[in-house]
Amino acid sequence: MILYATTADAEAALVTWAEATWFRYSAAMPDHWLSFHNTLILLVIHTLIPLPLLLFEYLAPAVAQRYKVQPQVRLSLTTFIRCYRDSAHDSLPIMGHWALSFLLYTLCSRYISVWDFLLPSAGEILAQLLVYLLVEDYLNYWIHRLLHTKWAYNNIHHVLHEFTAPEGFIATYSLG
């Protein structure tokens, strides 16, 4: 149940341009499809964040070499593309979490009858990001330690240590 009598009333109550834009966009889309945006956003970020470093290294190699931790290591473009392809392929099921999204949407829509269109404040977003980063960092540390036990390293984790020099897409490849 929406708090307002009409969608025009709901849109008029929105405070910021971001809320109004999100409302107009999401009003035309089925609710359960909205949860899939995370996958697209994460794939775009996965692609765009390392891209400037890759371009910098290949368009200005002499300049880039001065700033590299291991300047003697220079990987081929084919290797970068393989790392991107493999890490994107490995990450999609994690990013997608389609089954969980459908389950959570079904539960929430069944038990929560009022939906609020207002976006969280900047303070709420920062607090949630801080908690998320702390929890995620803590879990990554302990999972990575577990992956360095003899059995897990030999049977699973050794592949992720294929590259020893930090390079654009290698970072996300190594997380896979």
Automatic annotation (TrEMBL):
The record's catalysed reaction(s) read: a long-chain fatty aldehyde + 2 NADPH + O2 + H(+) = a long-chain alkane + formate + 2 NADP(+) + H2O
- Segments spanning the bilayer are 39-60
Identify its membrane topology class. Multi-pass membrane protein
Question: Could you tell me which residue ranges the Fatty acid hydroxylase domain spans?
Answer: 130-173
Compartments where located: Endoplasmic reticulum membrane
Keyword terms of this UniProt record:
Endoplasmic reticulum, Lyase, Membrane, NADP, Transmembrane, Transmembrane helix
Give EC number(s), comma-separated: 4.1.99.5
Is Kinase included in the keywords of this UniProt record? no
A GO biological process of this protein is: lipid biosynthetic process
UniProt record similarity statement: Belongs to the sterol desaturase family.
Know the name of this protein?
Answer: aldehyde oxygenase (deformylating)
Organism source for this protein?
A: Eragrostis curvula (weeping love grass)
| Origin organism lineage | Eukaryota, Viridiplantae, Streptophyta, Embryophyta, Tracheophyta
